[in-house]
Amino acid sequence: MAHAPIALVVALAQERRALERSLESVLHWWAEEFRAVSGRLGGRAVVLIQAGVGQERTHRALLTTSRWYSIRAAWSLGFAGGLAKLLNAGDLVFPSVVLKDDGLSGQVLHGAPVRATVASAFEAAGISVHEGPLLSVNDPLRTPEAKRAAHQRTGAVAVDMEAAGVAVAAQRLGIPWLALKSVVDPVDEPLPDFLAGCTTERGDLRWRSLVWSVAAGGERRRALGKLGRASHQAALGLRRALEVALSAWLP
């Protein structure tokens, strides 16, 4: 068990590439429809999984990976949307609980007790994180109005589409899990509808759709530029925080 890896689960190729830069002894592989990278980070053996978009895919990806590795823990990582006014682009969310959206206040999923140790490591490293609940939804919240409504309904400070899938799969495997997200779109920033056509279910970019959107100019180009800058900032913060977190993780 000493060399059993920690599973790092992301949705998008962009998220995987950002975190992969920190890995040592990298080995790329495929498991069914999921892309993964094994290596070492912060002195820990890890397997970085690009699961694709949605809770169902992250759930399946973690269970599939468990057939190849004796996974010791799972982390849900990547980008998120802000639901509370206090979150800006690039802010980190290290939730005490993940809420699986049920249309009401959300089904509560509690992270591992070691979370307190990791939170202390963040504080010692001067990394600021928000600890409020993270809401996992089935469909993206694209408008400020939808985000505010979700915040009022659940109390969540941020939203994603994957963390609950990782949490449920980890509970099924009997391993601890945690989530760490970086905000790309704050509550008052809408996500343009055309972005849905720029990403595949596997989390890869559809380059033709992206180029067409850029070529369309005007509003679409400005939206992509702003989102690109926010994503870059979010990725840098996520990489640094993950390195600190894994070095603090106790066997």
- Give the structural class: alpha/beta
Number of helix segments?
A: 7
Number of strands: 12
Q: Strand-and-helix sequence, N→C?
A: EHEEEHEEEEHEEHEHEHH
Percent range of helical residues: 25-40%
Number of folding domains?
1
Overall mean pLDDT? 90
Structure, explained:
α2 runs parallel beside α5 (163-173) and α3 packs across α7. Strands 1, 2, 3, 4, 5, 6, 7, 8, 9, 10, 11 and 12 form a 12-stranded mixed β-sheet that branches. This protein is globular. The protein has a single domain (6-248), classed as 3-Layer(aba) Sandwich (Rossmann fold), CATH 3.40.50.1580. The N and C termini lie close together (9 Å). The chain contains 7 helices and 12 strands. The protein has helices at residues 13-20, 55-65, 115-124, 144-154, 163-173, 207-215, 218-248, and strands at 6-10, 24-31, 34-41, 44-50, 73-82, 92-93, 97-100, 107-110, 129-130, 134-136, 158-160, 177-185. A hairpin with a 6-residue loop joins β7 and β8. The protein has 251 residues and is of the alpha/beta class. The protein is 36% helix and 26% strand.
Short summary of the structure?
This protein has 251 residues and is an alpha/beta fold.
Q: How are the SSEs placed, and which strands pair?
A:
Blueprint: E1 6-10, H1 13-20, E2 24-31, E3 34-41, E4 44-50, H2 55-65, E5 73-82, E6 92-93, E7 97-100, E8 107-110, H3 115-124, E9 129-130, E10 134-136, H4 144-154, E11 158-160, H5 163-173, E12 177-185, H6 207-215, H7 218-248
Parallel strand pairs: 1-4, 1-5, 5-12, 6-9, 7-10, 10-11
Antiparallel strand pairs: 2-3, 3-4, 5-11, 6-12, 7-8
